[in-house]
């Protein structure tokens, strides 16, 4: 097996969470499998999540923590995001991180478009994994919500900047996880698929 550079972003804004446990378990399993790993906990980074100016011509300078996140994404060959689903979407701070860091010139190119007029992704050549926690049962996610958050993350965020394929794992019943799940290392990290 070839060693990969893996960047893991724990997208839960609280210091302690099931998402943190999942991110750290994935990191440990990946390191034990011989991969290089960088791990960021959203709770530990400081930035203004408000995009603010509402356009790409005048952008806020990236805070040091956001610059490091973007550098880690650019460094990686495989990106893993753990996130809860709150009110059918991403936590506000995680969405703010994407709004602020995934900008033209580093994440996508608005001057070069594809045959449909969409900007060219600038972070191609990377794969992704999203590990999402929620209390929503899997069937409800699929049939009632039509996997809206999955599609947003896989297609409209990661796919838009070139990270694909992005595979998706959903754990429901997150408010009351069983201790065996909270403390079990990820068995999928070694294969990255």
UniProtKB/TrEMBL annotation:
Belongs to the NAD(P)H dehydrogenase (quinone) family. Residues 173-193 are annotated as: Disordered. GO terms for molecular function: NAD(P)H dehydrogenase (quinone) activity. Pfam families: Flavodoxin_2. GO terms for cellular component: cytosol. Residues 183-193 have a biased composition (Polar residues). This is Oxidoreductase. The lineage of its organism: Bacteria, Pseudomonadati, Pseudomonadota, Alphaproteobacteria, Rhodobacterales. Keywords: Oxidoreductase. Residues 4-184 form the Flavodoxin-like fold domain. PANTHER family: NAD P H OXIDOREDUCTASE-RELATED (PTHR10204), NAD(P)H DEHYDROGENASE [QUINONE] 1 ISOFORM 1 (PTHR10204:SF34).
